[in-house]
Amino acid sequence: MSGSGTAPFGRGSPTQHPPAHTSRTPRFLGRRLHPDFVRRSPLQLPPGPPANPRAPSGRAGCARAGARSSGHAQSRGQGSGREQGSRCTTFAGCQGEPPGARRLGERCPHKTLPPRPAPPPRAMASLGHPATFGRATHVVVRALPESLAQQALRRTKGDEVDFARAERQHQLYVGVLGSKLGLQVVQLPADESLPDCVFVEDVAVVCEETALITRPGAPSRRKEADMMKEALENLQLNIVEMKDENATLDGGDVLFTGREFFVGLSKRTNQRGAEILADTFKDYAVSTVPVVDALHLKSFCSMAGPNLIAIGSSESAQKALKIMQQMSDHRYDKLTVPDDTAANCIYLNIPSKGHVLLHRTPEEYPESAKVYEKLKDHMLIPVSNSELEKVDGLLTCSSVLINKKVDS
């Protein structure tokens, strides 16, 4: 997909069609984790439908594991081109798989299950309504430790961080959120033993009055969660801690659209982490998206407004977008920018100012800035982030936005 600008995607879009596959093996890379159907262990599986009498012998081990996945319709060209299926939990005797192997994100290749009925309608939470999406009253940030310049994690070794300049850029960033936009800033102190601690987004996912304290994929970052937990407890949020040692989740892999969650499966976030998030925020559907050639899902996409997803132009970003299209039950607009990292922006809905968007400066990404300038109904605030980007930090990485209800 080339070019820049906005275009709709999701259910109901007449111009989007899933690609036709000639292989007999289904290739569904994304996965829907509806909270009612989160993974259970094999001993806890609910009773499934009667075995297909026409199924070949040796395939009786395929069972519904309760999670909905998305793919192509059985008859291509009919309906929406999507199919509700079920993942396959393969036990001993299933052809082509070792005993106990499990396929996640694919329809069972051995038999076709009837479409799963849609989950019961739920009352839309306040943040899910387009009129209130993006509201925030508080923001949690953290000071930069001097150890960041030499010890912060980075995917590739590159230019050295100018720490003094990084501090100035971070102070301006915090000033925009606090002084300019009126959010109440909760400033946490730096910890020299935690060089990545400024990237607070990765240790907490906050939605409404609930905060999930994550278990970051990098072991060196897990102690960062302690101070974040204390800060969110002081704000009287409901705290859920991710204690499963098999789970990892970075907040940078979590995209909340106001209607649903997309969770990137990356080197920092795994399937179990996504399942715990789905179990924490039960009022929202959760879908997983493979992340390739990037640190996090939000390394190439973010919300730029109600129902508006900013997305980069790279092949991996566009592939992730197609998976989100197939997985989503909602229709979103997309804003395509030439530079993947410039697609990471911060949208806020400030009652006194309207739609506000923090995005990268024209000096850093001139072509992407031109795309943002087309959003005439947004208050645009360019923000520099060149130094933290050297250690894989983008705009959303350095803050956790919270919308506290006003006590009546």
TrEMBL record:
Q: Read off the SUPFAM superfamilies from this record.
A: Pentein (SSF55909)
Q: Does the keyword Hydrolase apply?
A: yes
Which intervals carry biased composition (Pro residues)? 44-53, 112-122
Q: What GO CC terms are in its UniProt record?
A: mitochondrion
Q: Which organism is it from?
A: Bos mutus grunniens (Wild yak)
Xref: Pfam families: ADI (PF02274)
Locate the residues binding substrate: 153, 196, 201-202, 221, 268, 391
The protein depicted here goes by the name Dimethylarginine dimethylaminohydrolase 1
Q: Name one GO biological process term.
A: negative regulation of vascular permeability
**Keyword Lipid metabolism annotated:** no
Q: Which family does it belong to?
A: Belongs to the DDAH family.
InterPro entries referenced in this protein's UniProt entry, alphabetically: DDAH-like
Q: Which UniProt keywords apply?
A: Hydrolase
